[in-house]
Amino acid sequence: MSALVIRGGVVVDASGRRRADVAVRGGVITAVEPDIEPGSGVVVLDASGCIVGPGLVDLHTHLREPGREEAETVETGSRAAVLGGYTAVVAMPNTEPPIDCAAVASQVLELGRSALCDVRVAGAITVGRCGVQLAPMAELAELGVKLFTDDGTGVQDARLMRRALEYASVLGITLAQHCEEGALAQGGHMHEGAWSSRLGIAGIPAEAEELMVMRDIALCRLTGAPMHFLHLSTAGSVAMVRAAKAQGLPVTAEAAPHHFTLTDALVASFDPVFKVNPPLRPSADVEAVRRGLADGAIDAIATDHAPHAQETKEAPWDEAPPGMLGLETALALAITELDLEVEQVLALLSWQPAVIAGLSSTHGGPVVGGRAANLVVFDPSERWTVDPAALASKARNTPYAGRTLTGRVRHTVRAGEPVVVGGVAQR
Amino acid sequence: MKHLLSIDDLGPAGIEEILRVTDSFVEVSERAIPKVPALRGKTVVSLFYEDSTRTRLSFETAAKRLSADTMTFSVSSSSVNKGESLRDTVETIEAMGIDAVVVRHRSAGVPWRVAGWMQASVINAGDGWHEHPTQALLDCYTIRSRRGSLQGLRIGIVGDIKHSRVARSDIAAFAALGASVSVIAPPTLLPPSLDGWPVQVAPSLDAILPDLDVVYLLRLQRERMTEALIPSLREYRACYGLTASRLARLDPDALVMHPGPMNRGVEIDAEVTDDPRSVITAQVANGVAVRMAVLYLILGSGAELRLPEPVLSGTRA
User: How far is CA B189 from CA A157, A195, B220, in A?
Assistant: First the structure.
C-alpha cells in the first residue's frame, strides 16, 4: 500500500486543532507534525486551506442491497459516502430480505469488503422487522453487529421491546429505535399541522414520535440497557432525550440533516422529493433540533440516506415512498446551516457516531501516529451547488437540488487508501 | 390563464372574471342548440383516476358545447392497471397532441405534478381532499345569481370539512368574494389546524342556523363511522343533519346547497331537497356553464370575449 502525506492543512480531532501535515504508510498514520518532507514515491495530497479530520461515520445509511439494487448498491452507496467524507457507514437492515439473520448480514458485509468505505450493518430487532419475534441478536453480534433496529418502523409492542432490551443488555450491543407510534401515524404522509390541513394531506402528529420516545426512555430506565434514538425530529423528542441524559440514563440520539434544514412548507410543491419519514416539521421543531445538536442533547448527525429510483418519486405525493439522499450533502449542510465550530461539526459527524457504532478503535480519531488512517480533508469555505445529476449515488432524490452550500470534501483516505482525491472518487 | 389549479391562484378578480364569462355561457345553454364553435379544433382530455360520473360529464358537456374534441382516459380501461407511472401516462397523452387535460385524482397535488410534466393546460377537477376549484366557482355563481353578490353573506359549511376538497375551495372562494364563512362539524371532521383559514368555527348547527344566508351541506362518507370519527349516522343526523324541523328555523331567503351526491336522511332530509330554498339542481346546471367559461378562458383566443354565433341557427327556447 502506497505511502502518502497530507500537506498544508489544519488537523482537527477531539483534542482540538493544530497546523500539521499527516504522513500515512501501510494504512496507518505514521506522523502528525508540521512540515513533513515527503520522500520519493510518496503521494502528496494538498490540504492547504483545508481541515484534516477523522473520517466521518454515518449511523444511518440505506444501501438498498439486497433487494433494491435499482436505487442503490453497496458499491454506489459507498462511493457517495466517501465523496461526502465518510470512511464508515452503518447499513440499515430494511433490505429485501431484511438483515435479520447471519446469512444476510454476511452477504452485505461481504459486498462491503470491496466497497470504498467501511461498511458495517445494523441488524433487525425482530424477525422480518415484523415486530413479533426476536431476531437472533447473539448470532448477529458474533459477526460484529453493534446496532439493532427495525428502522422504517418502530417496535410497536412495548412488552416485546422490553424483552429485546433485556436480551441485548449482555451482548454489548445497542438497540436503536425509529420512534413512531403506528396507530397514531397510520395513513399519514406528512407532518400534521397547518400545512397538512391546507394541503388536504393526512398528517402524522409530532406525538406519534414523542410517545415512543417517552415509552422507550421508560423502558431504558426499566432495563438499564442502552438505547439509541434514530432521526429525532420534534422539539418534544429532543427535550425528553435531553432530560433522560440529565438523569443519567444510557441514551444517545441522532438527527438527520433535513430535519435541521427543511420545513413542512416545502410539501406545498407536492414534489415527493420532500417526502421523508419522520416527516419535515415546522420551523419550531427545526430550531429545537438545531439547539439539541448545539447543546449535546443530540449526539450525532446521521444522514438517513434513503435512495429511491426516480420513477417511484414521479408519483402522487401519497403513493411515493419516503426518503432522501444524504451522504454527499451532510457535511456541507452542517457547515452551512449550523452555527457551530468545526470541532463541534466533526464531533457530531465523526467521533461521537463512531462511539455509538462501536467503531471508535478505527474511526473517529484521534489523528495521531499509530491510528488507522481513516481521514477526511475538506475545504470549509468552498462553495458549490448541488446538482442531482452529478451525485455518485444511483438515485437522484436530493431535496437540495440547486442549493449552494459551503464546505466541500477534497480528499478522503480510507485505511490509507486515497479513495477521493481532489473531489473525485478514485474507483 | 394557463391552468386552473386552485382558487387561491385566481384571486377575487380572477373569480369575478370567470363568473362574468359564465353569464354568457348560461345564455348559450338556454339556446335550442346550445353549441358554439369557440374551441373548434381543440382537444380536451378527461384524465380521471377516480370515479366521478357527474364532474366528468359536466366537463365533457361543457367542452362539446364549445365544439372541442373530447377524449376520456379512465383508470379501469387504461394502462394504469398495468403499472404505468403517472408521469408515463401524462407524457403519453401529451404526445397525442392535446390542448388541455381535466384531472381528477384521489391524491392531493396531482394536477400540480401533471402541470409540471406537460405543455398543455391543466384543469383541476378535484385532487384528494385538497381542491375542487370548478365546484367552488359554480357554487359562487349559484349564490350570486340568487343573491346578487356574496359580499357580506353569512355562509355556513356543515359536515366533513377535514376530508373535503369542496370545503377547501369553497372557503377560499366565498371569503375572496367577501362572504363571512363558518364551519360546523364534529371536531373529528375538522382539519387538525385552521391556522390562516378565513373561517370561524360555529359551536353548533342549531346555534348558527337562524343567522345563515347559505347552508352548505357536505356529503358524509359512510366509512367515517368505521374510522371512529363519528359514532353513528343517526347521531350525525341528529347533530348536523338539515332536517325538516331545522329547515323551519332557516331564514325564508336563505339558500340550501349540496355538491352531490346526497345521502338523503343523513346530512339532508328528503323533504329539504324539495324546498324552494334548495338550489341543488341549479348548482348542477350552472356547473356546465362555469366549466365552459373556464375552458374558454384557458383555450380561447384570450381576447375580450365576443361570443360566437351558434353553430347552426336555432330558435330560442
Answer: 29, 17, 10
DSSP A349: I
Closest chain A residue to the Cα of B191, Cα to Cα: A197
CATH number at A249 reads 3.20.20.140
> Does A315 touch chain B if contact means CB atoms closer than 8 Å?
yes
Chain B positions touching chain A (beta carbons under 8 Å) = 85-88, 105-110, 112-113, 127-131, 163, 165, 168, 191-197
Residue B54 shares a structural domain with residue B35? yes
Q: Is B132 part of the annotated catalytic residue set?
A: yes
Q: Check whether the bond before A366 is cis (ω within 30° of 0).
A: yes
Establish, for the pair of chains A and B, how many residue pairs have beta carbons separated by less than 8 Å: 70
Helix or strand run (H / E) with residue A360? none
Same-domain check for residues B102 and B28: yes
Nearest to A124 by CA among A168, A180, A184: A168
Residue A167 lies in a domain: yes
User: Pick from A329, A356, A383: which residue ends a domain?
Assistant: A356
ipTM for the predicted complex comes to: 0.93
Q: What is the pTM of this model?
A: 0.95
Same domain, residue pair A231 and A187: yes
CA of A93, closest CA in chain B: separation in Å? Answer: 28
How far, rounded to the nearest angstrom, does the alpha carbon of residue A251 sit from its chain's CA centroid? 17
Instruction: Spell out the per-residue pLDDT of chain A, length 427, in tens.
Output: 679 999 999 999 999 999 999 999 999 999 999 999 999 999 999 999 999 999 999 999 999 999 999 999 999 999 999 999 999 999 999 999 999 999 999 999 999 999 999 999 999 999 999 999 999 999 999 999 999 999 999 999 999 999 999 999 999 999 999 999 999 999 999 999 999 999 999 999 999 999 999 999 999 999 999 999 999 999 999 999 999 999 999 999 999 999 999 999 999 999 999 999 999 999 999 999 999 999 999 999 999 999 999 999 999 999 999 999 999 999 999 999 999 999 999 999 999 999 999 999 999 999 999 999 999 999 999 999 999 999 999 999 999 999 999 999 999 999 999 999 999 999 9
